[in-house]
Recover the amino acids of this structure.
């Protein structure tokens, strides 16, 4: 059974803290994505990666960075968390051959920044 | 930017009834996908329909695509309480080497027992 695992379901951090959100997939997928989801705004793409060490900015990359050192792992980093980064963060992956196809999502990480 | 727009935003029906949700988009697409999200969880892929397809079925799901009207519909037949969730459409635009999907804001479906 295919799986995308996000390290934490719920996190509470303080303003200014550095936050790491980890995502691991076991499907040998080339592409990995980080989204944030907010009520009324839907899913917004933060960053995506189509290969190890490769990354591309999505629609809202400001305040975030990413790391893809291994194919199965894609990390989202908030260098200095702010309250407006309180959100649900969703990681997803897809196969290069079907990169325009099905995305597999993790269960999400709900981050609260106080 | 959100290309897909789902309609209605919210839908409440009784168990056993059919639920229809619509998605409209603006630009030419390669494919359109429907996803489901239970409250507080990740999204699950339901069905993908390509631009050269008009209708697709999967179990109790039926998806249609009308490229001339730039719209799609998702029909869930004989709904169950477990179908209560949000449903999202996502489009893969056909222009360029765009690897991104463009998402709608979703339809919230409540199926009452």
């Amino acid at each position: 059974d295919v799986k995308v695992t996000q390290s934490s379901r719920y996190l509470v951090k303080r303003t200014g803290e550095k936050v790491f959100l980890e995502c691991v997939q076991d499907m040998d997928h080339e592409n990995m994505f980080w989204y944030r989801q907010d009520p009324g705004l839907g899913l917004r793409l933060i960053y995506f990666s189509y290969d190890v060490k490769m990354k591309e900015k999505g629609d809202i990359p400001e305040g975030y960075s990413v790391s893809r050192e291994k194919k199965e792992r894609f990390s989202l980093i908030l260098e200095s968390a702010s309250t407006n980064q309180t959100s649900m963060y969703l990681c997803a992956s897809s196969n290069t051959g079907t990169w325009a196809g099905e995305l597999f999502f993790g269960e999400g990480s709900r981050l609260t920044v106080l | 930017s959100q290309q897909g727009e789902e309609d209605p935003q919210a839908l409440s029906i009784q168990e056993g009834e059919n639920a229809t949700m619509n998605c409209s988009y603006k630009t030419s697409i390669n494919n359109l996908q429907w996803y489901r999200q239970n409250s507080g969880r990740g999204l699950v892929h339901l069905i993908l329909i390509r631009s050269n397809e008009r209708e697709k079925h999967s179990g109790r799901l039926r998806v249609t695509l009308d490229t001339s009207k730039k719209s799609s519909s998702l029909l869930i037949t004989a709904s169950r309480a477990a179908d209560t969730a949000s449903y999202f459409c996502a489009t893969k635009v056909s222009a360029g080497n765009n690897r991104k999907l463009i998402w709608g804001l979703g339809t919230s479906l409540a199926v009452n027992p």
Remarks:
- Chain A has a mean pLDDT of 92.
- Chain A touches chain B at residues 4, 31, 40-43, 45, 48, 50, 56, 58-59, 88, 90, 92, 99-108, 110 (CB under 8 Å).
- The first strand of chain A starts at residue 4 and ends at 6.
- The CA atoms of residues 25 and 72 of chain A lie 5 Å apart.
